[in-house]
Specification:
The complex is a heterodimer of chains A (161) and B (315). By secondary structure, chain A is mostly helical. Chain A has seven helices and no strands. The chains are: A mainly alpha (161), B alpha+beta (315). Chain A: It is a multi-pass membrane protein.
C-alpha cells in the first residue's frame, strides 16, 4: 500500500520537477539548448506505465504548464496531447526499439511538437523565431537515453512501479 | 504483430475511441486558445492563481540565485578586489560628473520654471530584482520581484544603469513581467542624439538588436550614433539612452535606410533594474478635443443667447 503511494508520489514528483525545470532559465548562450522537459518526462511515463498517462493527464499538465509559462492558454495542452497520443499509439513498438532508434523517434516527436508550436504562434501573430530555436529538439533527443536510463535506474532503486 | 498487441492492451480497446478523445481534447485546446487570444484569460487566471504561481516562480528562480551566490562565494579575492576598485573608480567619476552637473541642472530648472514647463530632471524610481524565470516567449521577457502590491502598473518604463530596458507588460500581486525593447512586437520612439532625427526603433527577431527600418534616405545617420528616447507617445520619458547604431544600409526596397542598433542596457545581464514612476508627460499631438456645444436639452431653439456663447453658429 505504502509502496503504491510512494510510486504515485514519485510519478507526480517527476512531473512537477519537469514543470519547474521548464521554468528555470539557462544563461543566455545556452538558452536555445534547453529541452522541453515536460514532453520528455511525459514520454518516459507514457512508455513505462501506460495506465497512468492518459490524454486527460497530458491536457491537464499542459494547462498547468501554460498557467506557469505559456503565451496562450491551451497551447502546451494541445502540444502535449498530440505528443502523448502518438507515443501511446506506437508505445509497444517504441518500447522495444534499441536506444538509438528510440532517441530518433523522440527527435521526430519533439520536432513535430516544435512545428505545432510554430503553427500556434504564427496563428497568434508572433514573428518567426530565430534559427537557433530549432536546436532544442535535438538536445532533447540527445538527452533522452540518459534521462531514460536515469529514471529507470531510480525506479529500480526505489523498487516502485 | 504490433497491431495485435495494441488491440489486446486495455488502453487500445477501441482505437476509434482514442482518436475521438484526441480530437475532443485538441478541439478543446483550440477553443481555449482562441478565447484566450481574444480575451486575455491567461493573465486573469494567473492573477487569480497568483498564490500558487508566484511561489513557483520564486522556486524556479532559486537556481539562478544560487549560481549568483556561488559565483560571489567562490570568486577569488583578487577578482573581487579588482571589481571593487573598478566600482569605486566608477563611483568617483559619476560623483564628479554629478557635482559638475548639479549647477547646470539647477540652472536648467530655473530656466524651465521661467518657461513654465514641468519637465523635471529628478527621477522617481523603484529598485526591482530580476527573477530568473523563463516565461516561454523566446527571450523577450523579464520577470521582476515587484508587483501590484508594490505599486507597479502596466506601462511603466524599466531602465538599468545604461539605458532603457523595456516596459511593464503584465502585473501580478508580487511579480511583474517586462516586455523588452528587443521584442519584435515592441516599438520605441527614439531621436538620434547627434542630428536630432526622430524615428522609431523596433525589436528584432534575434532578440539582441534593435531595428530602425524607416530612416529617410537623405538622413544623416552614421555607425556609432547614439539613440535616445524622444518622449513622443508619452510612454517613455525623453533623454534616456536606447542604443548605439551598429550598421546602416539601404533597405531592399530602396525607399528607406535601415539601421541596426545595439541596446544600451544590459538586456540579458541585468540583475537589478529601476522602475520609473513618473510616466512621461504626453508630448505628442494633444488628445482630440471633445466637440463642445450647448447642452442638449436646450439645443434646438429653446434659448437664443446660449449657443452663441459656446461659439456655435446655428443655422
Amino acid at each position: 500500500m505504502s509502496r503504491q503511494r510512494l510510486s504515485q508520489w514519485w510519478f507526480a514528483g517527476t512531473l512537477v520537477f519537469a514543470l519547474l525545470s521548464m521554468l528555470v532559465p539557462l544563461p543566455g548562450v545556452l538558452e536555445p539548448f534547453k529541452p522541453y522537459w515536460p514532453a520528455l518526462f511525459l514520454l518516459y511515463w507514457s512508455l513505462e506505465s501506460e495506465d497512468r498517462v492518459t490524454l486527460g493527464l497530458a491536457f491537464m499538465i499542459g494547462l498547468g504548464a501554460d498557467l506557469l509559462n505559456g503565451v496562450v492558454l491551451g497551447e502546451q495542452a494541445l502540444r502535449l496531447c498530440a505528443l502523448v497520443f502518438i507515443a501511446l499509439r506506437f508505445r509497444s513498438r517504441l518500447r522495444f526499439f534499441p536506444m538509438w532508434q528510440q532517441a530518433l523517434a523522440v527527435l521526430a516527436l519533439l520536432l513535430n511538437d516544435r512545428i505545432l508550436l510554430l503553427l500556434v504562434r504564427l496563428l497568434a501573430g508572433a514573428s518567426l523565431p530565430p534559427a537557433s530555436w530549432w536546436i532544442s529538439p535535438f538536445v532533447g533527443a540527445a538527452l533522452w537515453p540518459f534521462l531514460f536510463l536515469l529514471l529507470d535506474d531510480l525506479r529500480a532503486r526505489l523498487r516502485i512501479q | 504483430m504490433a497491431r495485435a498487441r495494441d488491440e489486446s492492451s486495455p488502453l487500445f480497446a477501441g482505437n476509434a475511441a482514442g482518436t475521438l478523445r484526441l480530437i475532443v481534447y485538441l478541439a478543446l485546446a483550440m477553443v481555449l486558445m482562441v478565447l484566450d487570444h481574444r480575451n486575455g484569460w491567461l493573465w486573469r487566471l494567473r492573477d487569480t492563481a497568483s498564490a500558487v504561481v508566484e511561489p513557483v516562480y520564486r522556486l524556479a528562480g532559486l537556481p539562478a540565485v544560487g549560481v549568483r551566490t556561488m559565483s560571489v562565494a567562490f570568486a577569488d579575492r583578487q577578482r573581487l578586489t579588482e571589481q571593487n576598485q573598478r566600482l569605486r573608480e566608477d563611483l568617483l567619476l559619476a560623483n564628479a560628473k554629478l557635482n559638475r552637473m548639479a549647477a547646470v541642472a539647477e540652472q536648467n530648472q530655473r530656466l524651465k520654471e521661467l518657461l513654465d514647463t514641468q519637465h523635471s530632471l529628478d527621477l522617481n524610481v523603484q529598485l526591482a530584482r530580476v527573477i530568473g524565470v523563463d516565461l516561454g516567449a523566446y527571450r523577450y521577457q523579464l520577470t521582476l520581484n515587484m508587483g501590484a502590491r508594490d505599486g507597479v502598473r502596466p506601462g511603466q518604463p524599466v531602465i538599468d544603469a545604461h539605458g532603457v530596458m523595456g516596459q511593464v507588460k503584465e502585473v501580478l500581486p508580487t511579480t511583474s513581467v517586462v516586455m523588452l525593447i528587443t521584442d519584435p512586437a515592441h516599438a520605441i520612439p527614439v531621436v538620434v542624439e547627434r542630428t536630432g532625427l526622430r524615428t522609431v526603433a523596433y525589436g528584432s527577431r534575434d532578440g539582441d538588436e534593435l531595428a530602425l527600418p524607416t530612416i529617410p534616405l537623405a538622413a544623416d545617420v552614421r555607425v556609432g550614433d547614439k539613440l535616445l528616447t524622444s518622449g513622443l507617445g508619452g510612454r517613455f520619458p525623453p533623454g534616456f539612452p536606447v542604443g548605439d547604431v551598429r550598421s546602416v544600409a539601404p533597405a531592399p526596397t530602396g525607399m528607406f535606410l535601415v539601421a541596426l542598433a545595439k541596446p544600451a542596457a544590459d538586456i540579458d545581464r541585468s540583475e537589478d533594474v529601476l522602475l520609473l514612476h513618473d510616466q512621461a508627460e504626453p508630448d505628442g499631438p494633444p488628445a482630440p478635443v471633445k466637440p463642445m456645444g450647448p447642452p442638449s436639452q436646450l439645443a434646438p431653439g429653446a434659448s437664443v443667447g446660449a449657443p452663441a456663447a459656446a461659439g456655435e453658429v446655428k443655422p
